[in-house]
Amino acid sequence: MTANARTIVIDKRAERLYLFKSCVAGTFCPFIERSFRFILNLLSVDYFDDPRQSSCTGFGKYCGVMPPQTTLALNARNLALACDSGYTNVVCTCPTSYGNLKECIEELKDERTKNSVDAILDTIGVEYKDDLHVFHAAEVLHSLRATLRKRSRGTLKGVKVATHHGCHYTKIFYDEVIGGTWEYPTLLDEIFEPFSPELIDYPERTLCCGLGFTHLIGNRIYTEATALRKLESILSGNPDVIVTMCAGCQAVLDTYQKLFENRWDHRAPVLNVAQLAAILLGADINKDACLQFSSIDVGPLLEKMAVI
Amino acid sequence: MKKSEFMPNNSHESHNDNDIGFLYNKDNNIKCFQCGRCTSSCPAARVFEEYNPREIMRRVQDGESNALTFEDVIWLCGQCHTCSSRCPRNNDPASIILDLRRRAFKEGAGSLDLREKAKLMAQSLWEKGVTVSPDLVKQGIFGDLVNFDVLRQLRGEPGFSETEAREISIPDNALEEIRTILRKTGIYYQG
After folding, report:
1. CA B63 remoteness from chain centre
2. How far apart are CA A113 and CA A107, in angstroms?
């Protein structure tokens, strides 16, 4: 794609969205999709909430336990459903779905791979097409940031915000990151910039949260060491909130602050980008944004945001 | 490395002969010059002394293609892809290690615990079309990290299902399509 063509696609990234469901988000952070839908409904963004789509299998894939042809064929079907529906901006709330779907599209450009997947899809009467684009929900919110500000009566003045961009957004398709670079991503920072927060920088900005796939379902030595290293760095700037774009990152950073609660004098609630944006647009903090899922007290944050 | 050994094999005739290899990088070959930026950037190498992606790259580039000879080190990668994003030669160590994992797993490697949890994920895909669900939390896939009773209570209050990841389940006819794909690509669940 030429640079100009890509710019046009990116400019239209909030139109006719195919809302791709994430199983990790649906398990640990179901409020991410609910908050994102709240925003899309409020701003009358046209989207298709297709229940037929399967998991992308990303969690199993990156553990190394999913047959690659299973991942490819299931996602070829998923992408075909999006193409056939006419909702060709596939939007993922999960960075692993985002990275995985884009990897599948790249792999299906190989003729032999595509032929073998076509043969499987043929048995269910589906034809793979790749005339679509895959985005992360944060990229969609980024394109809507001026509207978000305009429609919101909330503010982040005086609120210290630290952001953590998921590895599978910034490091798999590292040259397609919107907002900053893969070494210094600012996508999430730019979404909230119009709300005048105090954006906090910290040394381990690009470090993994510690999830680590096999590690999370294994002995968690890596998870604990890396999550603590990450949290030491983030919390050193005394943020009021940590904003993420990944259910896995959110669950790990929240859980490890709780598990090691005596380690720090200061802790900070972890919110998904859609959760914070929905609150700024007036979403119900319990029914829509579901802040009760946070292990860390959200009271001080809400007070600073003048929500309570 | 002999590239042909890692090229896609598109036969889907049987469970044991259906491996599609991943494209290692944009040029589909490895051109590592052992600078070590992968290892110095790697959060897993910082935690595990025995884990060294540069060394894995050297061995693969030298033609070591039997995934089983790598033994436990391939399971230590956290799949964060920092190595791949930082490689000055545009290699993709994270995907190479993932491919070694897949090959080793297919040959029976991986801990018993991982293999049991892989079965849970396959079962969930078969039954519900999703890889992870609160039901798997209940079955202990995340060990004691997540307390199912706490999760269930949190989910119940705002009206989320206690056991399902989706707000709307996958319809039966769509699930049948998913199962056809699973059958043809090597996931058979027998309850």
Report:
1. 23
2. 7
Residues of B in contact with A24 (CB under 8 A): 132
pLDDT digits (tens, 9 = 90+) for A170-218: 999 999 999 999 999 999 999 999 999 999 999 999 999 999 999 999 9
SS3 (DSSP) at A272? strand
Please state the φ and ψ torsions of residue A117, each to the nearest 5 degrees. -70, -40
CATH topology of domain B3-106: Fumarate Reductase Iron-sulfur Protein; Chain B, domain 2 (1.10.1060)
Per-residue model confidence as pLDDT tens for chain B (191 residues): 222 222 223 333 333 333 444 444 334 467 899 999 999 999 999 999 999 999 999 999 888 878 899 989 999 999 999 999 999 999 999 999 999 999 999 999 999 999 999 999 999 999 999 999 999 999 999 988 889 999 999 999 999 999 999 999 999 999 999 999 999 998 876 54
Chain B hits for A31, Cβ within 8 Å? 158
* pLDDT tens-place string over residues A99-143: 999 999 999 999 999 999 999 999 999 999 999 999 999 999 999
* Cα–Cα distance measured from residue B76 to residue B55, given in angstroms and rounded to the nearest whole number: 14
List of residues 6+ apart from A265 with CB closer than 8 A? none
Could A65 and B44 be called an inter-chain contact, meaning their C-beta atoms sit closer than 8 Å? no
> Which residues does chain B have within 8 Å of residue A293's beta carbon, measured at their own beta carbons?
154
Q: Cα separations (Å) of A238 from A105, A227, A260?
A: 41, 17, 16
Instruction: Say how many residues make up chain A.
Output: 308
Q: How many CB pairs under 8 A join A and B?
A: 237
**Of A49, A112, A183, which is closest to B10 when you measure between CB atoms?**
A112
Q: Class of the A145-304 domain?
A: alpha beta
| Virtual torsion, Cα B41, B42, B46, B51, nearest 10 deg | -130
Is the complex ipTM higher than 0.90? yes
Domain boundaries, chain B: 3-106, 112-185
Asked if B114 and A214 come within 8 Å (Cβ–Cβ), the reply is yes
DSSP B2-46: -GGGGS-----SSTTS---PPP-STTSS-------HHHHH-HHHH
- Give the type of residue at A61: K
Q: Is A131 exposed, middle or buried (0-12, 13-18, 19+ CB in 10 A)?
A: exposed
Whether residue A155 contacts residue A306, with contact meaning beta carbons closer than 8 Å, is answered with yes
- Ranges of CATH 1.20.1050.140 domains, chain A: 3-137
Domain A3-137 coded CATH 3.40.630.30: no
- Residues A195 and A152 sit within 8 Å (Cβ to Cβ): yes
